[in-house]
Amino acid sequence: MSSADGPGGGAGREDPKEQRRLYYVGMTRARETLALGRVPGGDNPSPALFEGDWLLRSPVDITAPAAALIQRRYTLLSPADIDLGYAGRQPAADPLHTRLAALTTGDVLSLRQDGGRILLCDRQDAPVGRLSRRAAALWLPRLPAVEAARIIALMRRRRDDGEGAYRDTCRVETWEYPLVELIWRMGDDDRNLVAPSRNQAANQAS
Fold first, then answer.
1. DSSP letter string over 135-159?
2. Can you point out the beta strands (E) in 77-141?
3. I want to staple 109 with a disulfide (CB 3.0 to 4.6 A). Which of 15, 32, 35, 149 is the partner?
4. How far is CA 192 from CA 6, 136, 188, in A?
5. How many C-beta atoms surround the C-beta of residue 166 within 10 A?
6. pLDDT, tens digit, for every residue of 103-161?
7. Residues 185 and 83 in one domain
């Protein structure tokens, strides 16, 4: 069991009773042994909370990870973050469908700005998808910090999944779209980043 809540954590963090409750929850899950780690210079776990002859101390040499590694974040996008009808609006003969058919789970995509939208592009920088308007508004300011997008799944969409006006824009009966995880570097302005709601109706995603 691992508990990490660095400086700037939740309310009550400086309250010894709150700290004890936090560690009680974690420590009571140990079945045979319990190991507590503390980064040199850090304040978790608080030494004052763990004193006694039952505690064996063993200092270890810890090398701080690179700043780029600490700042790296992984955000799984939902269907609401994808323009679900992007490929469906292209005719069957469009090369986009061939590019989608060549993709597989685990493939890495790049993000490219297209006006006020963000395209998902393959290794040849050819579009294979697009983020929804709402997701584009969230990620456009952070686009330079996005390292890559990894395909988690390839989803299938049908014309009948939408309603009247939506169906009228479709030029094929079925198509695929990639569901991706973004790999990006968090900056100081991203501490309170809130991912788009995943409860939006799929037809509003585009």
1. HHHHHGGGGGGEEEEEEEEEEEEEG
2. 108-114, 117-121, 127-130
3. 149
4. 15, 18, 9
5. 17
6. 999 999 999 999 999 999 999 999 999 999 999 999 999 999 999 999 999 999 999 99
7. yes
Same domain, 102 and 192: yes
Same structural domain, 8 and 58: yes
Round to whole Å and give the CA distance between 115 and 112: 10
**Do both 23 and 83 map to the same domain?**
no
Q: Can you give the residue range of the structural domain that contains 139?
A: 70-204
For residues 60 and 131, the answer to whether their CB atoms sit within 8 Å is no
Of 124, 123, 105, the closest CA to residue 181 belongs to 105
Residues 165-182: tens digit of each pLDDT: 888 999 999 999 999 999
Instruction: Please count the structural domains in the chain.
Output: 2
Determine contact, residues 55/48, Cβ cutoff 8 Å: no
Does one domain contain both 198 and 125?
yes
Instruction: Give backbone dihedrals phi and psi of 187, rounded to 5 degrees, phi first.
Output: -105, 180
Decide: 127 and 109 in contact? Cβ < 8 Å: no
Q: Are residues 87 and 171 in the same domain?
A: yes
| Edge-first strand listing for the sheet containing 174-185 | 72-76, 174-185, 146-158, 108-114, 117-121, 127-130
Instruction: Tell me phi and psi for residue 26, to 5 degrees.
Output: -70, -45
104 and 161 share one domain: yes
